[in-house]
Amino acid sequence: MAKPEKADLQSQRGGRRIPYVLIIPAMAFLFVFFIVPIITLFKTSLSTKPNRLVAEYDFTWEWDNYSQAFDRFGGHLLRSFVFAGVATLLCVLIAYPVAYFIAFKGGRWRNVLLGLVMVPFFTSFLLRTIAWKSLLADQGPVLDLIRWLQLDGVLESVGLMQDGRILNTSIAVIGGLTYNFLPFMLLPIYVSLEKIDARLIDAAADLYSPFGSTFRKVILPLSLPGVFAGTLLTFIPATGDFINAEFLGDVESKRVIGQAVQSQFVDLNDYPSAAGMSFVLMAIITALVLVYTKFMGTEDLA
Amino acid sequence: MSASRTGRKPWGTYLLYVVAVGGFLYLFIPLFTIVQFSFNEQKGKRNTEWNAFTFDNWAHAFKSSDYIDALQESLKVAAVACTLATVLGALVALAITRYKMKGGPFINMMLVIPLTTPEIVMGASLFTLFFNQDVERGFATIVVAHTLFCVSFVALTVKARLRGLDWSLEDAAADLGSGPLRTFTKITMPIITPGIAAAFLLSLALSIDDYIVTSFVAGNVSTLPREIFDSSRVEIPAQIHVIASMIMFVAIAIILIATMAGNRRKARLG
Fold first, then answer.
1. Hey, is the C-beta of A291 within 8 angstroms of any chain B C-beta?
2. Residue A59: beta bridge partners?
3. A133 and A254: one domain?
4. Of the candidates B5, B26, B263, which has its C-beta nearest A179's C-beta?
5. Which one of A185, A293, A295, B237 has the fewest CB atoms closer than 10 angstroms to its CB?
6. Model confidence band, residue A7 (pLDDT cutoffs 50, 70, 90)
7. Considering CB atoms only, which of B121, B144, B262 is closest to A281?
8. C-alpha distance from B70 to closest chain A C-alpha (Å)
9. Between residues 188 and 247 of chain A, which touch chain B (CB distance below 8 Å)?
10. pLDDT (mean) for A288-298
11. CA–CA dist B154, B90 (Å, integer)
12. How many angstroms separate the CA of residue A126 from the nearest CA in chain B?
């Protein structure tokens, strides 16, 4: 009897070390290629060039970089947040009913419908956006349809069209963002709706709750974690995105923060202000995420 | 059923159907457009205006060599980066779901933050690291970047799949005299493989499609999205639409087969 007990103890002792061995490679990788780069990004944002001829930057605690960056790119930052905010809202409005439909009305087609939602993931992001360029073009099918239905006057007056165009306006950029991030909103909402015990809904109906109040008091609260997770998964990449703005926007709506940062780093070599702006973006979003996790926990993000 | 009792079903349900059909159309119309333009007889340098139907593009799908080179580069990056990310991520997921350990919330945080970092910030920060350390940007730096944004994704996906699995099977095997290695290959591996495979496939999709992070760390190496973006100002050849359609059809086939297999397994289990 004593022998297996001893072996048990030993395996437990070894077992206690196993999880730490398993996490070390990934944690080391994340430290070197995520934490350290964020620190170098921060240092770069506070650096100056000693003179024009040198490529290197000196770390000088140059906080002025930030006020300069805000002067130059504050508008870009604001525009990105507005675009991302509107797109996220539209994503919720579209994704929720679709997810609800799949979860409660999908029946035996549920998995197939869910699979269909994943298909855009496997088609190039760039080409999907270029496809919208063809669809929304001045002689393209969407405008043809609108003109045939004689809706152009109405759309123009509510500001959804500008001078008879949709392509190359901020409306097209927001539409593109909404389109591209819709699956990221839909999947978490579906997951949280699917978890709801159907008996709860039946119970509410048995107690003569009209559907509206069942939805408000049972379904909606239980699906909120999915909405929150989807909001983060949509809003965060949408604020940094510049592909939709580049392909679908006009000169003004092309000026989003992602475009500014990328061109400063890759083409114009003004690293400190670009680093500053990306750091500000990261700080704002981290603050939002912390508030979120405070209320919702990190579990639902997966 | 329940709603009809209160007489609210008709218009609410129809509205739901309309929005759902509209939502699916919205998701799929651009995909149809891509397939449609793969059959377009291209007029001018950019294949964005419909002209006439042709099979030529599909017959000469692999004609334009810059894009084929870039596709190969993308596949190489994805193969290396996603394998690395899957190994690193799956080990973490296994550690936090299978074992009791301290620091769980911290590890979770470390995994979630990269996921909630906008791509431009990730790209910009890696750029400053490589610039400061005088690392030449190219294949290796792209692999590092792709591994980075896939690793959290894999870890959290696998974690979600492993949560709630019955680990007592391992103990049962050990009780019946199975050694640790045998228990791992016969019990643990079969349990965790489907989740890991799914995470690997999705990370492939992330890697092959990435433009933003890649643009910061690629140097002179051109991946497929980079090639498309950089040359889109000058040309958008129809071959691109053909390649994208092919990738999409393969993906749809995989999804259909996987869901049907899943349904059958469920049916068998009752």
1. no
2. A47
3. yes
4. B26
5. A295
6. very low
7. B121
8. 14
9. 201-202, 204-206, 208, 210-212, 214, 232, 236-237, 239-243, 247
10. 71
11. 7
12. 7
Instruction: Take residue A140 and report the two structure tokens written for it.
Output: 């393209």
Tokens 């869910």 map to which residue? A114
* A176-211 exposure pattern, b = at least 16 Cβ within 10 A, e = fewer: bbbbbbbbbbbbbbbbbbbebeeeebeebbeeebeb
The two structure tokens encoding residue B259: 């869901």
For residue A203, the enclosing domain spans 74-301
Question: CA of B230, closest CA in chain A: separation in Å?
Answer: 11
Q: What is the three-state SS of A236-266?
A: HHHHHCCHHHHHHCCCCCCCCHHHHHHHHHH
On whether residue A104 sits in a domain, the answer given is yes
- Can you tell me the distance from the alpha carbon of B27 to that of A70, in angstroms, rounded to the nearest whole number? 37
Contacts of B223 in chain A (CB under 8 A): none
Determine the pLDDT at residue A93. 94
- Asked if A136 and A34 sit in the same domain, the reply is no
Contact A211/B2, CB-based, under 8 Å? yes
- Chain B CB within 8 Å of residue A112 CB: yes
Q: Can you read off the two tokens belonging to residue B243?
A: 């390649």
CB-CB neighbors (< 8 A) of A102 in chain B: 20
CA A143 to chain centre: 28
Quick one: DSSP state of residue B136?
P
Please write the tens of the pLDDT for every residue from B150-202: 999 899 888 888 877 777 888 888 888 888 888 888 888 888 888 888 889 88
What CATH number labels B65-236?
Answer: 1.10.3720.10
Question: CB–CB of B20 and A102 under 8 A?
Answer: yes
Q: Give the Cβ contact number of residue A75 at 10 Å.
A: 15
The closest of B40, B170, B147 to A25, measured between CA atoms, is: B147
B38-94 residue pLDDT tens: 898 888 888 878 888 888 888 887 776 788 889 899 999 999 999 999 999 999 998
User: Quick one: how far is CA B102 from the chain centroid?
Assistant: 31
**Tell me, what's the pLDDT at B5?**
47
Are the Cβ atoms of A137 and B112 closer than 8 angstroms? no
Q: Please report, rounded to a whole number, the percentage of residues in chain A having pLDDT higher than 70.
A: 90
Q: Which residues of A touch B202 (CB under 8 A)?
A: 121
- Residue A67 included in any domain: no
Instruction: Output the CA torsion B233→B235→B236→B242 (10° steps).
Output: -150
Query: Which of the listed residues A6, A37, A62 is the one where a domain comes to its end?
Result: A62
Domain count, chain A: 2
- Backbone torsions φ then ψ of A48, nearest 5 degrees: -135, 160
Residue B188 is encoded by which pair of tokens? 């643990």
Is A167 a domain residue? Answer: yes
Give residue limits of the domains in chain B: 3-56, 65-236
Q: How far is A67 from chain B (nearest CA, A)?
A: 19
Angle at B65 between CA B59 and CA B68, to 5 degrees: 80
Does a structural domain hold residue A123? yes
